[in-house]
Amino acid sequence: MKCIYCFKEMKTELSWENIILGSKISRLCISCHLSFIKLTTPLCKICSTESKILICNDCKAWSNKFGNHDVLSRNYSIFKYNAFIQKYLAQWKYQGDYILIEGLLELITTYIKQELNFIDQTYTVIPIPLSEKRLKERAFNQAVLLAQAFGNIDESYLSRKESEKQSKKTKEERIKTTNSFKIHKKIHGKVLLVDDIYTTGTTIRHAAALLVENGASEVSSFTLIRS
Predict the structure, then answer these.
(1) CA quadruple 148, 152, 156, 158: dihedral, nearest 10
(2) Which residue of 34, 59, 124, 128 has the fewest C-beta atoms within 10 A of its own C-beta?
(3) Dihedral angle computed from the Cα positions of residues 116, 153, 123 and 204, in that order, rounded to the nearest 10 degrees
(4) Among 210, 211, 217, residue whose Cα is nearest residue 179
(5) How far apart (Å, rounded) are the C-alpha atoms in residues 208 and 220?
(6) What stretches of the chain show up as alpha helix (H) in DSSP?
């Protein structure tokens, strides 16, 4: 069996467990597994960036922007942004290598079970939407695929306006960007937003702000990577 990313031949140790439960067989080789570098503590208690202070300066600025009450309760991320992850995401998202989601789900399943086991039916799980143009370009929404790790998801609350790619903007330009989302109905209870990467927090907070304004009691987020 070959690694789905680097195509290195992998030796599979057969056991009754992985014969019966095929999901136990890894789709990524050890080298690729180890190239996903986990965030190390201490972390900002809001955005999960590596920080020696309890709440990082960026999150303090966001709180001030929303009247000393951040619309985002907490962002949970697993991995650091590095050159390997940059190439992995580019091949998955922009070159259409759809199968690479299997490696990502393999990496996050244990984290979800151990760290996010409080996410239950009381939460509405909402993947960050793409604009229609972006969705046509990619043929799939990466946030939807990641959100499926949590079970039931709901895509009916938010949609995205056409806008320039965030990746083309500087940090300052991203933070000043007007809200690029539309909300379609009221929501109640707690929400978990899901996306692939947290950079400045602008995307997540724009979505969170609309949800809070329209009835959400709490908005948290899960992003695979903290840039």
Answers:
(1) -50
(2) 34
(3) 80
(4) 210
(5) 8
(6) 16-20, 30-35, 57-65, 83-93, 101-115, 132-138, 142-147, 171-176, 202-213
* Tokens 């990619």, residue located: 138
pTM value surpassing 0.70: yes
Query: Tokens 């695979």 appear where?
Result: 224
**CA 75 to CA 204: how far, in whole Å?**
9
Q: List per-residue pLDDT tens for the chain, 227 residues long.
A: 899 999 999 976 545 445 444 556 789 999 999 999 999 999 999 999 999 999 999 999 999 999 999 999 999 999 999 999 999 999 999 999 999 999 999 999 989 999 999 999 999 999 999 999 999 999 999 999 999 999 999 999 999 997 656 555 666 666 667 899 999 999 999 999 999 999 999 999 999 999 999 999 999 999 999 99
